Amino acid sequence: MQTYKAPLRDMRFVLHELIDAGQLAKLPGFEEATPDMVDSVLEEGAKLCEEVLLPLNRSGDEHGCTYENGVVRTPPGFKEAYKTFVEGGWLAVSATPDHGGQGLPELLSFVFDEMVCATNLGFGVCPLLSKGAMALLETHGSEQLKKLYLPRLADGRWSGTMCLTEPHCGTDLGLIKTKALPTDRGTYRVSGTKIFISAGEHDMSENIVHLVLAKLPNAPSGTRGISLFLVPKLMPKADGAPGARNGVTCSGIEKKMGIHASATCVLNFEDAEGWLVGEPHGGLRVMFTMMNAARLGVGLQGLGIGEIAYQSAVAYAKERRQGRALAGATEPAQPADPIIVHPDVRRMLLTQRALNEGARALGYLVALNIDLARRHPDADKRLECDEFVQLMTPIVKAFFTDCGSLAANLAVQIHGGHGYIREHGMEQLVRDSRIPQIYEGTNGIQALDLVGRKLGQNYGRLLRRFFHPAEAFVADNKDVAGMAEFIEPLAKGLERLRNATLSLAGRAMADPEEAGAAATDYLKLFALVSVGYMWARMAKVALEKRGEADAFYDTKLKTARFYFSRLMPETGSLFATVMGSKKSLMEMTADEF
Amino acid sequence: MQTYKAPLRDMRFVLHELIDAGQLAKLPGFEEATPDMVDSVLEEGAKLCEEVLLPLNRSGDEHGCTYENGVVRTPPGFKEAYKTFVEGGWLAVSATPDHGGQGLPELLSFVFDEMVCATNLGFGVCPLLSKGAMALLETHGSEQLKKLYLPRLADGRWSGTMCLTEPHCGTDLGLIKTKALPTDRGTYRVSGTKIFISAGEHDMSENIVHLVLAKLPNAPSGTRGISLFLVPKLMPKADGAPGARNGVTCSGIEKKMGIHASATCVLNFEDAEGWLVGEPHGGLRVMFTMMNAARLGVGLQGLGIGEIAYQSAVAYAKERRQGRALAGATEPAQPADPIIVHPDVRRMLLTQRALNEGARALGYLVALNIDLARRHPDADKRLECDEFVQLMTPIVKAFFTDCGSLAANLAVQIHGGHGYIREHGMEQLVRDSRIPQIYEGTNGIQALDLVGRKLGQNYGRLLRRFFHPAEAFVADNKDVAGMAEFIEPLAKGLERLRNATLSLAGRAMADPEEAGAAATDYLKLFALVSVGYMWARMAKVALEKRGEADAFYDTKLKTARFYFSRLMPETGSLFATVMGSKKSLMEMTADEF
Questions:
Q1: pLDDT recorded at residue B457
Q2: CB pairs below 8 Å between A and B: how many?
Q3: B416 and A344 in contact by Cβ < 8 A?
Q4: A265 to each of A82, A200, B532, B538, how far by Cα in Å?
Q5: Shortest Cα distance from A62 to chain B (angstroms)?
Q6: pTM for this structure?
């Protein structure tokens, strides 16, 4: 059975004991975001996710969305859940208060989103897109567009989409065929077919705001000729109320592996009226505002699925009895021991747990840096924080989603045959967790972003945002009592990562295919070391606080030990493959495959 | 799109150039199994799988089996396909000619089964079980049972099942509650509920033969008190024709993640008449005849899915155009290059390919040893071959199925968003490939079988069946021109495996939890080294034959290079975790999870 209680204790540990989220309350505009206030918001959010979203997760998967004559209906209960969700203000936690948002830190929104993704990934897609659309319009929209659209997105009356993909192009947006022709009213007529549009049509909001990539007449070819347009489903009337239908229709929804509660739409734009956002031909850069936020949000989907997978597997492992502990029966009065006694079951549970808690720590640190990058009074500090976020975005997106999928598969495995049966809900987690590895740029694309874009940027300056604090932490703590078992493997991992980085940077300069050949393994190496850095930091806090009333800190130390002894060693083999050459990938001709 | 042509060239390479399958034709009873005859049987089999089974794979998934009032209907077309299948004699390729089988080598049946699993896993489940039932009855059935049941199983009029699992017990069969009471006619009345019974009820055969584990009155507790009964669905009349209904009914089928074309049944036995097979209380040992064959068959499911996943992904990667080769456009006249130019796409394709071809070589070697173990004139040789099969069975089952699932997931990833959509058929491969990792003993159970049972058996004698030939191969070839790049990493892997084995054997003696904690990683280490051994042997053949007309041998060498440079390095990190202790798994109390 899908089992989930928001891990509030662990969330608070990261926020207050590890990354000092309280520092945000000292920044202008965030005065209200005190630890107490943050905690009470999260408690409310947890209640919503546990009581409203979780009960709809299985039924949403079974019913799925339906399509009929251009109309998409979400599964039973979703409209009501959406209403509760938006009335609670959850859509606009971190949106600007100038236009109806709550103006709280992104970090808080991030933590809440983890719970949403854990309890109902299909439901969470629509709010994620609305948040992305608000972020994009806040940064790049005209005052007129902001005033009209932001308040309606913030309160959920309207929802947002990202319309990028076309049948012949996904990753390679330079191939886009959708056209936009200027009208004499300063608007544009957008025509073309977009596919894979999440929440492109549904019945939860009264209007939908499409953000569409298209090409102006005589646009330069490739990605430099793409512009971005806001295209509402229903044309706003003078008073802002939704009016006549615009020229965009949904011609079908996809039958997919998972996230059945989220409609994946084919949208046909036929002379749909749209408004330019940003500069002509500058659409891709603008869309990347939304895309980068979305990539972090997708990373959270992986973390959320990882957490519900872990909790569900633990519940089953404590309840299901098969066989006896290898060291002798733990419950001899019962016909068998619970399977949590078996080392291999524990290996699977601890893999889920150590990855979840490590990813949570890293993810929240990234979110903290988003807020610091926006609000810190010192411009240098803002830049540094932004660079850290840029560096970590592909890692959060790719590694967290790979871990989410792994955790879901481990949950199935722990359930054995029962995991394969739909009613237990574990196989749904596998199906739902598979898409975050793909959308918003496949994980292979994330790896190329890391090695091709982030690695060399400003002569490796982004890298220093990770290496400096991590190496300083190692230097400061290598002689601290009790820290050796964490610092030694971390230092080894950092050395591998540093050497791999130097080698790769050198080789990539001469031959970009060398970077491409190593990219995926390099990203995973980077991720394991980054998460290892967070685990060492968590171990330090736990060492200092252990002995306090609850077992939390002791458990944290045990999980840290598992991470370093069982998961960190993979950095050795990843280092070996990153240091290899592209030859074994590239020497085969296409015909030989 | 699901794309599959039986890889006959590679199959022949393994059979005739690598493992000398021709030696079987010298064994008594296998005189007909000459290379030419083997090839023509496989060509016929390939045609059947490509033309009859593959076209039903997607539709079988979409329709699934239906249940109504105790009746199970297979998807449209399956009855007809089954008829074609059994009329071609494909069910009984290796069954004894004394009772209607073709008496051909198990190896040949194995190769054919790979094709069946590749093209329609759901369809293949039923024949797999019938084959297992025949193998069990051939070895353990009374003459009377053999005479009545074997010919009807061999020609497919009747099909077989394995009835082990009950709602409260899967892995731990000692907990079985199903009862068997003796009648005054020498038969038994079987009562109880069995779940997860594949092909437990369906409309393809006129009768179903259930092999059921149950307990006799006053049976010893645990696994030593289990007996095995043959329970027909319809009672055979005096002339053998199916007669009145026996006391077994199907009360429902499961809704599952995948293999929708295979009915997974709940069977209720109520005073069903059954016949004892083997000795009273000796049922588990007898069932393991079927189980061991089934585990190898499940390994083939992994390999089959791996192959169709690879071929489908290659087809897509050659056709889909996105972006440009990093080294410069390969097809500048087209708007974009095919994605097979990208190193990361090649990494995924080559991972699938190198694992498939390596697993194929190892799997066929195991099957060859099954035949040698049965038919070789020298008793010592027979024992040796049987020990090799015993050692390799958990590796084939667990590693091949893990690789199949990995390959299916890589096929989805290469397809990007299109891989997530049902119509392309890639996500079906992921769903179908997930169950082989679970049934016939989860892969964690396989690992325990390897370390707990196979490792220490006869003071490690089973291990020598792998280590001796592998180490001799290294010694013989380390100075052979061109072999260094394969022999060096193999030798390193062997050394790791040997050291890990010694350490584990020592630690396990003192503390079985140490073995349990390392089991899964140890099995993977063993598998990577075993497959590495096969790759080095394949490289040797290819080195000797390269320069011949086709590019086959050059391609084989390139794939071997990929295996050793990109996949074999994982033995390093697996060695590290196997050498670690159980502490990080066992120190946490159950409450702390």
A1: 87
A2: 267
A3: no
A4: 19, 5, 46, 48
A5: 11
A6: 0.97
CB contact under 8 A, A353 and B169: no
Q: What is the pLDDT of residues B326-340, one digit of tens each?
A: 999 999 999 999 999
- DSSP assigned state of A89: T
Please report residues of A whose CB lies closer than 8 A to that of B569.
573, 576-577, 580
Residue B547: predicted pLDDT: 83
Q: Is B440 among the catalytic positions?
A: yes
What digits encode the pLDDT tens for the residues B357-398?
A: 999 999 999 999 999 999 999 999 999 999 999 999 999 999
Helical residues (DSSP H) of B416-480, grouped into ranges: 417-420, 426-434, 443-448, 461-477
The ipTM, to two decimals, is 0.97
The C-alpha of A344 sits at a distance from chain B's nearest C-alpha, in angstroms, of 6
Confidence check: pLDDT of B456 > 90: no
**H or E element: which one contains B277?**
strand B264-277
pLDDT at A549 (0 to 100): 73
Q: Are A259 and A125 in contact (CB under 8 A)?
A: yes
Q: Give residue A33's Cα distance to chain centre.
A: 23
Q: Is B336 on the interface with A (CB under 8 A)?
A: yes
Quickly list H helices, A416-457.
417-420, 426-433, 443-448
A52 touches chain B (CB under 8 A): no
**A229 CA: distance to closest CA in chain B (Å):** 23
CA distance between the termini of chain B = 43
**HSE (side-chain half, CA atoms, 13 Å) at A574:** 26
Residue B580 tokens, joined: 């670690």
**Cβ neighbours for B47, distance < 8 A, ≥ 6 positions apart:** none
A511-529: average pLDDT:
97
- B412 touches A: beta carbon within 8 Å: yes
Cβ of A586 and B417 within 8 Å? no
Q: Could you tell me the two tokens for A176? A: 């886009």
Catalytic one of A114, A307, A387, A440: A440
